[in-house]
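Request from the bench team (R.T.):
"We need a structural guess for the complex before ordering more zinc ion. Sequence and SMILES attached. Just send the tokens back."

Command: build protein-zinc ion structure.
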Amino acid sequence: MDYIDPHIHMVSRITDDYETLARMGCVAMSEPAFWAGFDRGSAESFRDYFRQLTEVEPRRAAQYGIQHFTWLCINAKEAENVELSREVIAMIPEFLDCPNVLGIGEIGLNKNTRNEATVFLEHMELAIQYNQQILIHTPHLEDKFQGTKMILDMLCGDSRIERSRVLVDHVEEHTIQHVLEQGFWAGMTLYPISKCTPQRAADMVEMYGPERLLVNSAGDWGPSKPTAVPDFIFEMRQRGHDESLIRQVVYDNPRTFFGQSKGFDFKPR
Ligand SMILES: [Zn+2]
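Reply to R.T.: structure attached below.
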């Protein structure tokens, strides 16, 4: 089945992963800007990273017939440095017209600190000013519930935010309902050591239905599995779900959500 991975960090993956993903049916992917496994020292280092996301990765993906899209920001882990964050935010508009850019992301919270919230709000302002979609990272484990609540409060506190153009990622059983009820899109991240499994994701589709739900692998520099979306497809088939329901979650939904961005020039095969 053709599918789209809406959240995967290909800069940290080897070229063989592109080939494997292509064989598994991946036709497009979106790569939010994130941490590099270490804190970067200057805004110039982000400029190089944004060039990698807008120039290098699309070319690498295209060699395997995969369309690559991206989101730009300074992530929550590095947002603790507000001065650096402001320099990076000021530079982002230079890249917003690159052909594969879908919006601002993945912004969010990590340890739910005041500085992280300040930088989150300044990213929100940037997205509004430039009419960009937003992709959001929610914190992990014990910080997730409180962090998701803080994020939803900041988003809902600004009437200029179009909720149908915001994706809140890494939802789990205790946060998914709040996200969907408020009108946002929700992403379930399939990850071997934390977050969600293919089985739990299938349970949540059964409980909440497929509307505004996405699944992704978040494949990154840590222990992760870039082929996790096909694992979800396999799990759904094992349970006897219709191909059309599975396809809605892994292909139609990402197309609908991304299609709200002018950068999403997707060509189905
Ligand atoms: Zn991520």
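Two things stood out. Residues 3-258 form a domain with the TIM Barrel fold (CATH 3.20.20.140). The beta strands are 3-5, 26-32, 67-72, 101-108, 133-137, 166-169, 185-189, 213-216.
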